[in-house]
Design goal:
The chain is α+β, with helices and mostly antiparallel strands. The chain folds into two domains: 96 residues, Arc Repressor Mutant, subunit A (Orthogonal Bundle); 55 residues, Ferric-uptake regulator, C-terminal dimerisarion domain (Dna Ligase, domain 1, 2-Layer Sandwich). Helices cover 43% and strands 16% of the residues. The strands form two sheets. A three-stranded antiparallel β-sheet has the order 1-3-2. The longest helix has 13 residues. The radius of gyration is 17 Å and the shape is globular.
Amino acid sequence: MRHTEDSAAVTEALDLLREKGERVTAARRAVLHVLDDASGHLCAEDIATRVDEAEPGVHRATVYRSLQSLAELGIVAHTHVPGSATIYHLRHSPGAPTGHAHLQCSTCERFFDIPSDWLTPLGDRMREELGFELEAQHAALLGTCAQCRAAAG
């Protein structure tokens, strides 16, 4: 689906690109639209497929490079998922607010978003006792969801 107008989140992301002296390319704009439209967590392959549907002229490798540069610029967030592909979201999207962490059920593989401040006490303790700075949004924490625990029990 081609977009004729940019949402507030995409406009903000494009403005950030320009502020950083970066070019606004068709690929970057398409990636931002895909992430803004997403209702769930998308891996690079999912994003490339959706960009191809919206902008058939954008090469897959260009989508991957765009994701990498947008992540390095802090416009797109990525989360490493154990045993699976890295997932991405637009930092400024209302559907994916800044400041959340990810939980993944190791049984059903569903994701759950939690406010990152739930991990603040753990981060504080790690900093105080180990001098380690936790990046709670950067990796998914594994566990078993209530539904899978009930089914097993």
